[in-house]
Amino acid sequence: MNKEFKVLALPYKIWLGIFVFVPIIAMALIGISNLNSTVTIADLRITLSHFSILYQRSVLIAFRNSLTFAFATTLICFVLGYFVSYEIKRSRVKNKFVILTIVILPMWSNLILRIESLGNIMSENNILKSIIGFNLFGNISGTWMAVLFGLVFTYLPFMILSIYTALEKIDPALEEAALDLGLTPMMKFWKVVFPLSFKGVVTGSIMVFLPALTGFAVPKILSRGQIILIGNIIENKFIYTNYNHGALLSMIILIFIFGSILLITKFDKEGETLL
Amino acid sequence: MSRKKPLIELIDVTKIYDDEAVVKNVNLTIYQNEFITLLGPSGCGKTTILRMIAGFIKPDTGQIVINGKIFNDLPPYARPIHTVFQRYALFPHLNVIDNVAFGLNNRSYESLEDFFSKEKIDAEVQLLSKEKEIKRKKAINSLIYKEANKALSLVKLEGYAKRKVDQLSGGQQQRVALARALINRPQILLLDEPLAALDLKLRQNMQYELKEMQEKLGITFVFVTHDQEEAMTMSDRIVVMKEGLIQQVGSPKSIYNEPFNRYVANFIGETNILKGTYVKKDVVNFLGVDFKCMGYEFPDNEVVDVVIRPEDFDVVSLEEAPLVGKVIFSLFKGVHNEYEVLVNDQVLLVHTYETYEMNQPIGLAIDPYEIHMMRIQDE
User: Is A13 a member of any domain?
Assistant: First the structure.
């Protein structure tokens, strides 16, 4: 039986090797070598010269922008998401799955399409304005507000789902026990509910933080190219075939991702809140 | 008697869920320092009563009076009552000692000053300040953990303070839950089938320990269970419930020996219930024979239910026996033998030390004081 499962898992293992593992190694090597279209195999050298890109002002600003937007998005998603999750958990609606489906619903449409539409109703003349007569968002397209709104709009469901999953796992008897031991409902929340849902907050934060940090579509579309995040720089490096710099920056982003996964495993040893 | 001071009074309490009354006009008085058990099958409303006393749910009608005050609308955190939950409900994010100290840790500074008394806190400040300047808050904190350790040793869990709760066995978790409630010195401790998840041996040990603790601490225990043996072992009084109604309230002995109706008789231990006629004063006829009885008053010739416990039959020689039957089933139970005896087409359950073979005739007699009678009720 075990053997059969092993065989069945093989195709994906091969896939994983060819399309994930090998490319990562290749990227790491491209990032620290002088490989490009003019270099022959014989001239291939290891070089650390590409690291100079890390001192470039545009890259530094992009990193700063990325981190700022990612942190701000995570924080806003946490504040908005926590209380929505808590309300869903406490609601007396029998079928909470329906509410959660509504929360996830936007995620089932294409991201680019959603962001393009959002960008459209954020610009001066748009279809919504001609229907309701005024500009709902003002004319914020191209500003940092538009980017932040887009990021929160896109990633909030991840936060809500993770926190909800953690909240749902809390035994109602624990809340009763807290009240029984003399805690007011407010104290109960801070001493029992919040600590027990903290795993969900960490997982949700990472699920929001990482794509917000590394993505390039949302800032590109909503800032109309005005705000550059690190994802946009990497995209441009590859578009203009500067593979060495693109690869090096990607590897740095990858370090952020691995760091976050380490953080998750520290907080959530069973990996149960990971969706 | 000083112990007869009422502590909790339920007055005409009714609770309705989805148009169905799960507790119906219950009147019950619970006295100080008693161990009272609500006994009944699942769905009889016993847990609902407990939860109403704890304050998790409100009665739809009627009043819950504790210490002479109406408690209906008081939230659970304002009641001098603590609960030991069925599945213990220990906080998984805290270790054992923090679980035990949880109630005290979350009290206000003022109430802790009352709890420990000013002198004790001053003494603790003196004790600690030998090392360095110490604030009263720190002294109180130190007192809380001393108290928590005391509570742990009360439930025989010294040395487990720093353990995580999920590293404890069911019985140990049970003890932590008990310590967590007892440390707050509640007037009333509610226990919701706390032993149901333990294995038999552990359960029996815990029964004795609970009873011992209750006597030592002088706290009123309100215990909920569906296990009649458990109720018998521990309780001062038992409240037998069925479908939201109280069937009988009394000491284990009186409930066992003088069940009020068929339901109680059947629920508490094995028994024989026979149709009989109260012929005249101190004479009852059942199985076609007149028996002497005592202590019951019914109108002459009233039809009654006669209750005889299996161990109350005396096995006598066939010549002397008012009842002669035939053994149709036998089971060796270690201490005694369990027989089914066919007498006048009725099967009786008989426990005796004597040994009889299958189909052997057996003579049975019953002492007058072992015959219990109940008015017949529609069921």
Answer: no
